[in-house]
Amino acid sequence: MLKWVLIAAGGLAVAGGAVAQTAQSLGAPAGNVERGKKLYLEQLCYTCHGTVGQGGERGAGPKIYPNPFPYAAWVMQIRKPRQAMPPYTDKHVSDQDLADMYHYLFSTRPSPAAKDIPLMKDF
Amino acid sequence: MQRTETIAKLHRQMNNRDKEASANGWDASPVSTARLSAELYNAIKGEKWALAVSDRASWPRRLWPVTEHHQMLGGTGGAGVGGSLPIALGAALANKDQGIFTATIQPDGDLMYAPGALWTAAHHKIPLLLLMHNNRCYHQEIMHVQRMAGIHQRRQDTCHIGNVITNPDIDFAKVAQGLGVWAEGPITDPSKIGPALKRAVAEVKNGRPALVDVVTQGR
User: Which B residues in the span 133-192 are in contact with A, Cβ-Cβ below 8 Å?
Assistant: First the structure.
């Protein structure tokens, strides 16, 4: 099911042309960035995905920003996750909480590309 | 020949993916482990270097050019906590006579098992560069407790209890200085790591241990 949501979202993105992504453009309802950051840290999302969604290493979670899942897929992965991620049900995290956290990720500072980082020339 | 070319191409692709992955969160604070590892390599690349405990971050094994047998010395075995610091000391002592510059990525929880080893390093003048991977927690345990909480349909926001090393935050530079080791930190701005490491390398090249405390991402 998640696969088809992602494929459909990809199709919409291609049809819409190259447009900068926003939380709203990926289907998210309104959200509060400050509240989202607080929740993202409180709910320990950062332990696996990093404080800015960059992902972790050695058994931690994948990168979730930039290029995040479309919002519907984001919700699906959090509520009924694939693989080792623990589920966050609506008993503990509300739908609005998810929207706020999604908006928080879009507020984080973009990372440089590897080709633009001087230290990377050694690798 | 064809197989060689195919493998070389796959290796280059893997290397490019690793570099792109390491760029994520490059300027984040707490500091990303990728940034931590890259700054350390930049500081020691001109030396005949060894990374004493090479399994505490995956980035050195993924990106650093390893060409000599002494450069990556492995881990504690079974991810044992508390062994990294004394193992690094032993490696640095052995490497001293070989003219090998020994560095290590030192986790905070591991150091707190036997912090007196820093005094040993100072007393015996063991040249070792310790770059703290100070994520202020027993991070493996947090992730495990989170997974168990998920399996049992419990809340996630209490999984840090008993696993974080905060309140107060340990000042590892002061701990090290108190035990006779040159130290700087805590560093939370990634742009400050390079200059601190340059000063630390000079200290180690003078035959003494040095510690740079960097506050890092969990993983």
Answer: 139-140, 142-143, 146-147, 149-151, 153, 155-157, 159-160
Could you give the number of structural domains in chain A?
A: 1
**Residues near B46 by beta carbon (within 8 Å), at least 6 away in sequence:** none
The pair of structure tokens assigned to A105 is 């990720």
For B142, the closest of A42, A47, A63 (CB atoms) is A47
ipTM given for this complex:
0.91
Pairing verdict, β B210-214 and B49-51: unpaired
Q: Give per-residue pLDDT as tens, B70-122.
A: 999 988 888 789 999 999 999 999 999 999 999 999 999 999 999 999 999 99
> Does the beta-carbon distance from B57 to A57 stay under 8 Å?
yes
Residue B20 C-alpha, separation from nearest chain A C-alpha, in angstroms: 5
Residues A58-114: tens digit of each pLDDT: 879 999 999 999 999 999 999 999 988 999 999 999 999 999 999 999 999 999 999
Which chain A residues touch B153 with a CB distance below 8 Å?
87, 89, 91
Task: Tell me which chain B residues have a C-beta less than 8 angstroms from the C-beta of A42.
Answer: 157
What tokens does B71 get?
């450069």
Give CA–CA dist B24/B112, Å, rounded.
30
Percent of chain B scoring above 90 in pLDDT: 95
Q: Is residue A95 part of a domain?
A: yes
CB contacts, 8 Å: A120 with chain B: 19, 22-23, 38
Assign domain B2-134+170-214 to a CATH class: alpha beta
- The model's pTM is 0.92
Q: Domains of chain B: which residue ranges?
A: 2-134+170-214
Q: What is the CATH number of the domain that holds A83?
A: 1.10.760.10
State which residues of chain B have pLDDT below 70: none
User: What distance in Å separates the CA atoms of residue B169 and residue A28, rounded to the nearest whole number?
Assistant: 37
CA distance linking residue B24 with residue A67, whole number of Å = 12
